[in-house]
Amino acid sequence: MTTAHEQEAPGVVEDVFDGLATGVEVEGDGGADAAIVRPWDPASIRVTTNQFSLRNILDMIDEGSLELAPDFQRGQVWKIDQKSRLVESVLLQIPLPAFYFAEDSDGAFRVVDGLQRLSTLHAFVRGGEQGFRLKGLEYLRENDKGFADLPVQWQRRIFNTQLVVNVIDPTTPPDVMYDIFKRINTGGTPLNAQEIRHCMSRKRSRDILKIMTSMVEFNTATNGMGGHIRMNDREMALRFAAFWLLGMDAYMERPAMDSFLERATRLLDNEKEVPDERVIELYEAFRAAMSNAHLLFGEYTFRKWPEGVTWRNPINRALFETWSIALAPYDPADLEGRRTAIVAAARRRMSRDIDYLDAITSSTSDRRRVDYRFRAAAEDAKAGA
């Protein structure tokens, strides 16, 4: 063990989105998942190119055969002027970049690339809660008009607009599909890993993670992290679910966090693999973990809190996954009696063990660092016993 007196401890950097702090520490995974662990067979990558009219696409959305990943808050990021100019581009018959859809085995489609554009066009044409009126147009004089206010020929032009869509065949392996998703992620603000998983996943896993991050215990422990703009809350809940369902050995067999979490997402989507009874057990374990963690660490839960530090750092995802798993099995009365010893052990480790600080700060997907921080949390949870 290298001590902090021998080497300067890593700093804390908070993630920022759209100019605002997110409350979550930047995770330095060292690009551990950037390389493809196993070369893909080119024959397994099946993508076909088709053309759909915009009217056809909108009908598919309304009937549920094309899913726009509900609950995806990033859809609110575009300003009205940006949305209006997309509509203006359609009216001016300026070709839009190609879209990517992933086809399911049941023939339904999910949007892989183009979610914001399709959400915007659907909101403008079909209205509803997300409907809007055109503002800030550069070339046309249709400001302050909704779709119903446009001349019939303009409406017809929108409906008849042809969209180029690349469709990923359902026989494409999930890991390959995820890698394709990352590679063609072309939005103005690229999706992060959890946002990609959300768009690729089915309703069941999305609902499970939403329930977990809506729990009072979770929001108490994380100072109201539920509903996070970059879905960091969903990723943290998924990390707990992944290690709780699959265990450390499964991670060590293939130590890549993205692949591990994508596998856990598929499990949660499969009722045969994870039946409802098992999901209830997951909820209770997660609830206990959140309650126990806050019981011990209070406002510093899942945050770096070395000795002598009184300010509150942003939430650290590596601390979240390790301490939540470590504390889930414990009885609150037992932890209450040993609280002083446990907190002292954890803070001492954050102050003096540079190997531990590295394990929760940089190259966090490395198998040795994952193993080290899990063993450390389990050991410190036993302090005073």
Question: Which blocks of ≥5 consecutive residues have pLDDT under 50?
Answer: 2-9, 31-37
> Roughly what fraction of the amino acids lie in strands?
5-15%
| Topology pattern, helix = H, strand = E | EEEHEHEEHHEHHHHHHHHHHHH
| Radius of gyration (Å) | 23 Å
Largest β-sheet summary: 5 strands, mixed
Query: How many H/I helices?
Result: 16
Could you describe the 3D structure shown?
The chain has two domains: 14-29 and 201-380, no CATH class; 46-171, no CATH class. It is 49% helix and 9% strand. The longest helix has 22 residues, at 232-253. By secondary structure, the chain is of the alpha/beta class. Mean pLDDT is 87; it is low at 2-9 and 31-37. The protein is elongated and about 75 Å long. Strand 1 (14-17) and strand 2 form a beta hairpin. The chain has helices at residues 54-63, 80-91, 115-126, 152-160, 174-183, 193-200, 203-214, 216-221, 232-253, 257-269, 276-297, 317-327, 332-337, 339-352, 354-359, 367-380, and strands at residues 14-17, 20-25, 47-53, 66-67, 99-103, 109-113, 162-168. It holds the Pfam family GmrSD_N. Residues 56-198 form the GmrSD restriction endonucleases N-terminal domain. InterPro entries: GmrSD_N.
